[in-house]
Each structure stands twice: as structure tokens, then as C-alpha cells.
Amino acid sequence: MPPTPSVPSGGAGRSVPADPADPASPRYPEAARTAGSLAALDDHLVDCRACPRLVAWREEVAATRRAAFRDQTYWGRPVPGFGDPQAAVVVVGLAPAAHGANRTGRMFTGDRSGDFLFAAMHRTGFANQATSTAADDGLELRGIRVTAPVRCAPPANKPTPAERRRCAPYLARELELVGDGVRVAVALGAIGWQALLTTLDEQGWEVPRPRPRFAHGTEVTLRRARSEDPGPGTLTVLGCFHVSQQNTFTGRLTPRMLDDVLERARELAHG
């Protein structure tokens, strides 16, 4: 039986309730916008209970468990981003998988989607190993970070628009805290693409109107709308099919296709 994932930044054992009707609540996602560090953001995130439907589902899954994992203790909480805290490349997915990250407590870890993604990161030099099985398996990412616009496992992998918007401050603040070194953002799938462009628009990047449509291989370079804003003057957003089994098992997304996107991200980041 693998060890229970440790709670980021000392959040273990807390039971601070969130009030979804009160944006001033310290556990409400809006309050995450004031987090002073990634550790503080993670500490806030893992206690979030702002979306009743998602809270009920993630905890039900953690209690009932899949037969293959019945002897394991599930994480069953919101999942923080993972990777280099000063990454030049950020990968934005959709949400934790019910028996993947919701079980292991680490983004894209413990399911076949993660296997596909981290194997590609290893081939392209972003990861020290090709597998990601548990929060303490020794995996390290270099120059890249993985995150998502929704941090709790949703039923049928389909968060509602309201849940996506309520969770948005976590992605926004994480992008800010990773810092000025981010040069490239890779969006996995249409929902990640839409959420990322919405966040960047709100942060002062010049997102074209109408917004670019998602497609695999799409490349959009954004500039800051306000010249006084700190940080790099441009950010390139790359579109990539999601690493879901629906795409990888059917050949819609192949290892070579994902490698090409990550290699392009590296080229742009160091260009």
C-alpha cells in the first residue's frame, strides 16, 4: 500500500468550511488571489469546499474507491499544480481524474493520461523519469509545470461552467506566482484552451477578438495590453489534443504529436 500523499504546505487535518455565497470567506476561491506564494496558494486550495457537487463527488469516489485501489487511501481533495516553480512552460489540462490525481494527490498522476503525458516530458527532457505513479515516486519536472482550471475531480469529467468560473482564481494566481519566466502555455483540449485564454485576457494580455478556436497545433502569440505591466512582453499559447484515453487509444493523439508540441514549447521558451 503506497503512503498517503502529504498535504501541501501544512494543510493536513484542517476542516475550515467554505461558504460559496461569501466571496470574503478565507476558504472561498476568490481569496486565493491574495496568496503570497505557491505554498500559500496550495495551503488555501486543499481546503476549498466551494463547489458542493464537486466536493460530494470527489469524497464519494475516495470512500468507495475502485476495486484495483481498494487498499489505498485516496487523496479526495482539490489537487495543486505540480512542477518547476519557475517554469518557462506551463501545461494546462482540464481537471483531476477520479481515480488518478484524486487518488494520488498529484496532478496527472496515477492514470493512463498521466502516463502518456509524463513519458513525453521525459523524452523531451522536461522530466527526470518517464512514469508518474504516486506523490512520492521521485518524479521531478525541469522548466515545466502542470496545472488545471478545475482542481476537483468532476462527475463524468465534465465540470459545469459555473464550477469552472468559481475555480478560476486558483489558475490565475498560480500563473502569477510562477512568475515572469513563463514564455509558453500549452493548453490540453478545448476547455483548457478556453479557460486559459479567459484567464490571460483578465490578466491584461491582448487576446484576439474573436478568440482563436482550439485545434491541435494552433499557435497564438499574445502581448501585454498595458506596457507598464511587469514581466515578458509576449506569451505563446499552443493547442494540443488532451491526453485522455479517448484521444490516445484511438490515435487521434500520438506520442510523436505530443513530443512535437513539447519540443516546440521548448524552442519558444528558449528562443
TrEMBL record:
<comment type="similarity">
    <text>Belongs to the uracil-DNA glycosylase (UDG) superfamily. Type 5 (UDGb) family.</text>
</comment>
<feature type="domain" description="Uracil-DNA glycosylase-like">
    <location>
        <begin position="80"/>
        <end position="262"/>
    </location>
</feature>
<keyword id="KW-0378">Hydrolase</keyword>
<keyword id="KW-0408">Iron</keyword>
<keyword id="KW-0479">Metal-binding</keyword>
<protein>
    <recommendedName>
        <fullName>Type-5 uracil-DNA glycosylase</fullName>
    </recommendedName>
</protein>
<keyword id="KW-0004">4Fe-4S</keyword>
<dbReference type="Pfam" id="PF03167">
    <property type="entry name" value="UDG"/>
</dbReference>
<dbReference type="InterPro" id="IPR005122">
    <property type="entry name" value="Uracil-DNA_glycosylase-like"/>
</dbReference>
<dbReference type="InterPro" id="IPR044147">
    <property type="entry name" value="UdgB-like"/>
</dbReference>
<dbReference type="InterPro" id="IPR051536">
    <property type="entry name" value="UDG_Type-4/5"/>
</dbReference>
<keyword id="KW-0234">DNA repair</keyword>
<keyword id="KW-0227">DNA damage</keyword>
<feature type="region of interest" description="Disordered">
    <location>
        <begin position="1"/>
        <end position="31"/>
    </location>
</feature>
<keyword id="KW-0411">Iron-sulfur</keyword>
<dbReference type="InterPro" id="IPR036895">
    <property type="entry name" value="Uracil-DNA_glycosylase-like_sf"/>
</dbReference>
